[in-house]
Structures are given as structure tokens and as C-alpha cells.
Amino acid sequence: MKHPILFCLVGLGLAACTSHQSADSQQNELTMLVGTYTNGTSHGIYTFRFNQQTGQAAALDSLALPNPSFLITSADGKHVYAVSEMNDSTAALSALDFDKQSGRLTLANTLPTQGEDPCHVSTNGKLVLAANYSGGSLSVFTLKADGSLDTLAANFRGGTGGPDAERQPVPHVHCSQFSPDGKYAFATDFSADRLLRFPVSADGRSLQPADAAFGIEADSGPRHLTFRADGRHAYLISELSGKITVFRYTADGKLEQQQSIVADKAAARGSADIHLSPDGRFLYASNRLKEDGIAIFAVQADGTLTPAGYQPTGIHPRNFNITPNGKYLLAACRDSNVIQVYERNAENGLLTDTHLDIRVDKPVCIQFVP
Prior knowledge:
Elements: H1 4-28, E1 29-36, E2 44-51, E3 57-64, E4 71-73, E5 79-84, E6 92-99, E7 104-112, E8 118-123, E9 127-132, E10 137-143, E11 149-157, E12 173-178, E13 184-189, E14 194-199, E15 212-215, E16 222-227, E17 233-238, E18 243-249, E19 255-262, E20 271-276, E21 282-287, E22 293-299, E23 305-312, E24 317-322, E25 328-333, E26 338-344, E27 351-353, E28 358-359, E29 363-369
Antiparallel strand pairs: 1-2, 1-29, 2-3, 4-5, 5-6, 6-7, 8-9, 9-10, 10-11, 12-13, 13-14, 14-15, 16-17, 17-18, 18-19, 20-21, 21-22, 22-23, 24-25, 25-26, 26-27, 26-28
């Protein structure tokens, strides 16, 4: 004799299981944006669907834009801000509307940065900051309600003073980051071997001139800065010295040095990018020019670092990123024309090459949108 109630329960169970699997699948599907240099076969920004459980990627769309070497998305994923890293008056910042489902980008508007070679972008949702490397300045853009660029509100110039006569004779600003509390923006003043602090207005819509500078070791060439999610520590990778400086971030907006540790043991003077794992337990820093790869550090309870390993990569890993679930680290190896996909060991932080390479000409920036 058949039992209709039993069959009904089994059917409901299967439906629930299917629904759960579908939700998990959607949660694991990220949209990935890749910025490139366009002096080869690449023509701009490329979008992919990336599965953060399997490490598989599928191409979606692309948008032509000159040298979009760095880009960032708005918090809601609906807008993208991308530089055009040009060494003349065509250097610019573009606002793009973004459909993360299709991967389609639409140009909203473009404004000149009034500084050559913009190479980094950050945003608090009300301002967009572009770091101009050759221009030696930080461009501050206000935003319209629709997410497009409004005006270039300010352009703050960096300084000099570093001892490298070839790399530090003129100002270079390489990146900026908003502090976790939203009160300040910090910029790496490459040629002056210091970090500049800019107060953010209470409404988040304007940036005041620098009110403090935090010096580091001479001949460092500070490049990229990142904050720990707890808001109590910041980590700086310096291009020339190849060292990571660990700072304690205080309630009154000061950066107090805790540690300096070498990431580039080859002394290649080409350290590049820096990121923390989503759980905050490990820190990664990329090196170029010699022994290209990624240095791996364990983060201690007090925020300081201990070496955990080193992962060789393709040539010139200018930028890399870690998936939101922490399972994969993707390295944009510019001169190998490939994005390498590494699986992370969550317990020891080490990386394993999956060989699920994503072929892109001159990739230089990776961003994920959940």
C-alpha cells in the first residue's frame, strides 16, 4: 500500500533541497571586473562570472576604455569608477553604470584628473579619490545622486625628500584609502616617504587639505595601504624598500608604527599590492622585477606579522585580490598576460596554483561584486 503523506513529505524535502542548492549557487557566483593596459591587444575593462567555490570563470562582456589600470565599485555594485592611466592631459576618471547580472558596463561620464598617470581609485560613496602617480597629486571628485561624477573639487599635491634620485625626484601619489571610521583619507606620498592624512567632512562630501603626515623609513617609496576590518590596524607596502609597515590606528586618527618587516627578500625595488584575507588572519603582498610572487604573513593578535610562506607567480603581479569567501586568491600577472587562480589554505594561508588560468592581455586590476 502506498502512503501519500510520505510521498508528499519526500517531495517537499526534494524541493527544499533544490531551493537550498540554488541559493548556494547564486551566493557563490561573483561578477569579476578586470582592468587592463591597452597598449597590446586589450581594449579596456573585461567582466567575468567567477564561481568562488569551484574557481571557474566565464567571460561576460567588455567595455573599451584607454588604460583602465585601476577601478573600484560602489558599495551597492551599481557603479564603477575607473582611471585612464595616461601620461598627458587625457588622463581621466570615468564613472560607469554596471549591471552585475549581465556584466555590462555603460559609460556615464568622464572628467580629467588634471594629473598624469592616475593609478588608483577609492570611494566612500560620496567622494571619489584618484591618485595621480606622475602628476604627483590626489584628485578629489564629488558625485551626483545618480552615481556619475560631478566636479573635480580639489587637487592636493604630494611632496619630495626621498633619497632615490631616479625614483623620488618629483612628487608621486600612488594610492588613497578612507579610514574605517570614515573620518579621514590617507594617501601614500611616495617621493616624500610618508603618509598624508586628509580630514573628511562630517557629511562625507568634502576633503580638507592634509592636516598630518606620518613619516616612514627613508628610501621606502610607500605604495599601497590597507586597513584591517577591526579598524585598529593598517598595513603599508613600500615599493622601493620592499617592506611592510604595520601601524596601530588610534581613535584620534593617528598611525603609530608597530613593526617593519621585509616582504621582498630579493631587494628588487618593485613591491606592489597588499591585501588581508577576509578573516583577517593572513596578509599577502606582491613583488615584481625579481623573484616575482606573493609574500604570505600570519597576522598575530596584536596586529603584527610573522612570515608564513612565499608563492612564486607569473611575471609582474601588479595587483591581486581575494574572493569574499576567502577560498581563492587571483593574481593579475601583467607581463604573463594571465590571471592566475590560487586556492588558499585557510589554516596556514599558503597558496596552491589551480591552473585555472584566465587569459587576458595585460591584466592589472581585479575587483569582485557579490
